[in-house]
Amino acid sequence: MGKLHSQAMFFQARAAEKVANPILQRALQKAKPLFVGKRAKGIGALADDRLEFEQLRSACVDIRNRVLSDLDVWLDIFESQAKATGAEVLWAKDGEEICELVIDVARRHGVTKAAKSKSMLSEEAHLNEALAAAGIQPVETDLGEYIVQLAGETPSHIIAPAVHKTLDEIADLFTKTHGRPRQTDIPAMTREAREVLRQHFLSAEMGISRCQFLIAETGSAALVTNEGNGRMVTTLPKVHVVITGIEKVVPTLEDFATLMRLLPRSATGQTISNYVSLLTGTRRPGDTEGPEKTVFILVDNGRAKLLGSAYQEMLRCIRCGACMNHCPVYFSLGGHAYGWVYPGPMGSVLTPLFTGLENALDLPHASTGCNQCGSVCPVRIPLPKLMHQLREDQVTGGMRPWSERFALKAWAWVAGKPALYHWVVRRAARYLKWLADDSGRIRVLGLAPGWTVGRDLPAPAGKTFQELYAARKRD
Ligand code: SF4
Asked: I want to staple 111 with a disulfide (CB 3.0 to 4.6 A). Which of 23, 87, 106, 149 is the partner?
């Protein structure tokens, strides 16, 4: 279902549109230094920041690799432990099955309204549309998700869904939807949203949430949030449904504690998130809160096929968002340009893998190759390497345009003949100098005009490096 909604093939057109949007650019330029600065401070707060950070990274990589090498075993353990605590465990192979299972659980329990905490997997499944079509009202309760839902949009960042919106846009949206006087004071606006959402928390019969990790040894879901909505969604309604990817399992509570030393620091720079909840089973006799029914929906949707492939490392991802927060491409475009659920460098790898490489041809190229993403990833996912691998797969799969393939073949042929190569490079250096205008800039790059659509280039000297070097030696 999610695949049908992907707009990733329109990346280039959308990117051009986003770059030219001054409101979006203002919102992005304001957000980037906050993300980058907070993470730097969070990592810097470790005892000996660089050393401890690298040690923690190694420990987190080991935990995630250990899980992935025996994923079926840890999922089996999780399932039996969760069932022992009274939870139901269901399995979904794709987005369509997620929707069917959630609607079936809702119907079994007479649910008419579902309060939701942020869940990227429900975005993969387009669950809100499916719930509404089944007569169940979905209400997003994470503030960013709530704003995005009111605006009829999709999240543009995995941890800050409304990062693309300005304060004025949100104030207008609240005034229109809540029918109250316009406010631009952030705490007052938050209070207003809280008052509206409170009624939904109290009347929803079902809560739907993600979880950051599944703990195999206890059969628990670990939910990490900065807003109290996560706890409301998971404890007030009579039914709680957790939707999560199969790769999210970790063996023990101790492993979870280790990962938690890097997850909030990498995401928001916090040493610990405001709310860290371990949700185990259902309400027991004597409990004052908690759901009467807990259901885990464990989702594949393209994950299992990555096991044992060249892309297995991507399954280590703990969805911290650090890669996009440091990516110059993401912060020039925002998340919507990427056309599917996951933006930024992690999306440039995940979207082609989950929705088909042929449906996301431009995304592996949406990179400057600066490796900012790889250097901040807490679980050392080599994102640039994976993007290169995807590009290679495009070439070997015959997915690149014939003109590009022809040009590369011709270049390879020329590069294999040193005399011809030097002759061509000498002619090219002169040609590029000739292209420059009086100010010494190339405004339109003759044979590849796409390179100069949004920028110009300094003209080269008109001679190759070897020619210049030889001339200097002579002098
Ligand atoms: S790829 Fe790494 S940096 Fe990006 S979201 Fe995943 S864990 Fe975080």
From this structure: 106
211 — alpha (psi -120 to 50), left (phi > 0) or beta? beta
Q: CATH 3.40.50.10420 residue ranges in the chain? A: 38-154+198-305
* Class in CATH terms, 38-154+198-305: alpha beta
Indicate the pTM of the whole model. 0.90
C-alpha span between 117 and 97 (Å, rounded): 20
Give the integer Cα–Cα distance in Å for 261 and 272. Answer: 8
Closest to 141 measured CA to CA, from 205, 208, 88: 208
Measured between alpha carbons, how far is 95 from 127 in angstroms, rounded to an integer?
A: 8
* Residue 88 and residue 293 in contact, taking contact as beta carbons nearer than 8 Å: yes
Ligand 1 nearest-atom number relative to CA 319: 5
CB 378 less than 6 A from any atom of ligand 1: yes
| Cβ contact 266:224 at 8 Å | no
Q: Is 223:211 a contact under the CB 8 Å cutoff? A: yes
SS3 132: helix
User: Which residues are CB-contacts of 460 (< 8 A; sequence separation ≥ 6)?
Assistant: 429, 432, 433
Q: How far is the CA of 245 from the centre of ligand 1 (A)?
A: 15
Q: How high is the mean pLDDT in each 10-residue block of the chain (475 residues)? A: 74 94 95 94 86 94 98 98 98 98 98 97 97 98 97 96 96 96 96 96 97 98 96 97 98 98 96 96 92 98 98 98 97 96 98 96 95 97 98 94 89 95 94 92 85 85 93 91
One-character DSSP codes across 43-104: HHTSTTHHHHHHHHHHHHHHHHHHHHHTHHHHHHHHHHHHHHTT-EEEEESSHHHHHHHHHH
Q: Ligand 1: which atom is nearest the Cα of residue 322?
A: 3
Any idea which residue has 């029914």 for tokens?
Answer: 293
Could you tell me the distance, in angstroms and rounded to a whole number, from the CA of residue 439 to the centre of ligand 1? 43
Given the DSSP bridges, would you call strands 457-458 and 441-442 parallel, antiparallel or unpaired? Answer: antiparallel
Residue 315 CB less than 6 A away from ligand 1: no
* Atom 7 of ligand 1, residue of closest alpha carbon: 317
